[in-house]
Write a structure and sequence with these properties.
About 35% of the residues lie in helices and about 15% in strands. With about 90 residues, it is α+β, with helices and mostly antiparallel strands.
Length: about 90
């Protein structure tokens, strides 16, 4: 019985995945779903005490992985958006 399966070559994907415009190791990727507390501090330009206060007051959403606290990316994005609206004089509920 003869196999009708096509042998895939790199040229089959050359049009779909053109990696030549990216430097090695810098392919685009999706951001993580969770940030560490340290990353959250850096992203929001806030201190650890402030971030832990936001977590305690449930302004930011978190989960635990063992002993590590992970902050949900969407909650960080939403909080940053609210801060931006306040700075621009917009209405944030």
């Amino acid at each position: 019985m003869e196999s009708t399966m096509h042998q895939l070559n790199q040229s089959d994907f050359s049009e779909d995945l053109n990696t030549s415009r990216y430097r090695p190791g810098a392919l685009p990727h999706d951001p993580p779903h969770f940030y560490s507390v340290k990353e959250t501090c850096r992203i929001l330009s806030l201190g650890r005490t402030t971030v832990f206060g936001l977590l305690k007051n449930q302004v930011l959403s978190r989960t635990r992985y063992g002993r590590k606290t992970l902050v949900l990316r969407k909650s960080v994005d939403n909080y940053a958006f609210v801060l931006m609206l306040r700075k621009e004089g917009g209405h944030a509920a």
